[in-house]
Amino acid sequence: MKRRELLQAGALAGAGLVVLRSGMLRAGESPSAKLNIACVGVGGRGAGNLKDVSGENIVALCDVNANNLKKAAEAHPGAKTYDDWRKCLEQKDIDAVVCSTTDHTHAFVNIWAMNRGKHVYCEKPLANSVHEARMVRETYLKNKDKLATQMGTQIHATENYRRVVELIKGGAIGTPKDVRVWCSRLPKGGNYLPEEPVPPHLGWDLWIGPSPMHPYNSGYIGGCLAWNRFWDFGSGQIGDMGSHMMDLAYWALDLRLPTTCEAQGTPVSPDTCPEWLTAKWDHPANDWRPAVEVYWYDGGKKPGVPSEVFNRDSNAMFKGLIFAGDKGYLLADYGYRVLMPTKGDMTHYKSPRPEDLIPPSKGHHKEWIDACKTDKKTLCNFDYSGAMIENNLLALVAYRAGKKLQWDAPALKAKGCPEADQFVTKKYRQGWVLNG
């Protein structure tokens, strides 16, 4: 701010006005003023997100499903309603946007909203391609001092994740060597589905959005497990559950962008994501740990680790993480952590000082709302989460290209592997622009 602007802002604050982080002024409001929020996607998970931000002013609702929109509008009668998110984002009084659409439109809503000066909370994953993830991240970085963002990996706000991060960074397993992450959810394969009559309450063309046109089929509708197995609409389990499970690995090891990636899975289909996938990334050293290897397993595949690791907790048979260090293992999931020293003692480990503990979260949505109104930071902002989603989706590029990738992150390109380029980016229907 220039000195004159700063003095004017101070005078306005004294007169009962508040300067929101986005720079908008609204008369007669105190520092606890409510945000004006637009919720894009209000059924399913979107209904849950709408409920979690309903303490603010809900001024706009958008959904391609008229039934979902009607139900949400009944609960928020003062909100304007839309079936097209592009029109919704032009509403002038919006401060912030909650995006809960299908995966293939996440990046579009995120970028368009940030380009219009709106704070954004977006369900995971942020994007449906490596290029989209990079675009979302870079758009945020250009606006990071003005906008607050958060990806909807709500498990990040739990106490257990905090304790795991403290243990890993505090040296409980010694020097980290690798982390293995798995989820045994079994997705379907198959092909794009045959045409069915479009129900009258559904705007199918808007549901398809930027993706290539496919005829309506009810099998695409009904939650992330319905649509995200198809390349044009989602990114399989590495995009879905990988957003939650890899989050803990990313946080605990301070991971960013990998240098290599390789992956294997069921035979490549032109229509659907693999029914099982295994992947490996190499991540460079940082200022407190050496280079580490990161592994992913889904569709029933599991890491080859000592059997006693799995025997310690039956939940680990479905999903979890195992961190390996030179002095032990740490097995974890959403709600548990099991520390297993290699030599049977913990004499190498000192309990963290109070100042080293990660403070409790106010709640994943509340953290974002507070950041929108102040200069506070969110833990899952689009810089952190954009890098993680780029990492995850790079596994699908390696899988489809059938080669180990030497990843040139600054160039967004696999060195010496031009056949990977077609899977890094996506093609969109005419009239749909990602950076709009």
Annotation keywords:
436 residues; alpha/beta; Rossmann fold; Dihydrodipicolinate Reductase, domain 2; 2 domains; six-stranded parallel β-sheet; 17 strands; globular; disordered N terminus
How do you describe this structure in short?
With 436 residues, the protein is α/β, with parallel strands linked by helices. It has 2 domains: 3-155, NAD(P)-binding Rossmann-like Domain (Rossmann fold); 156-189 and 228-358 and 391-424, 2-Layer Sandwich (Dihydrodipicolinate Reductase, domain 2), CATH 3.30.360.10. The chain contains 15 helices and 17 strands.
Proportion of strand residues: 15-25%
Mean pLDDT across the residues is: 91
The level of helicity is 25-40%
Largest sheet strand order: 15-14-13-9-12-11-10-16-17
The largest sheet, given as strand count, sense and whether it forms a barrel, is: 9 strands, mixed
- Helix and strand content put the structural class at alpha/beta
CATH homologous superfamily of the largest domain - what is it? Dihydrodipicolinate Reductase, domain 2
CATH class of the largest domain: Alpha Beta
- The general outline is globular
Radius of gyration: 22 Å
Low-confidence segments: 1-20, 22-31
What is the domain total for the residues? 2
| CATH-derived topology of the largest domain | Dihydrodipicolinate Reductase, domain 2
Q: State the end-to-end CA separation.
A: 28 Å
> Architecture of the largest domain, CATH level 2?
2-Layer Sandwich
Number of beta strands: 17
- The DSSP helix count reads 15
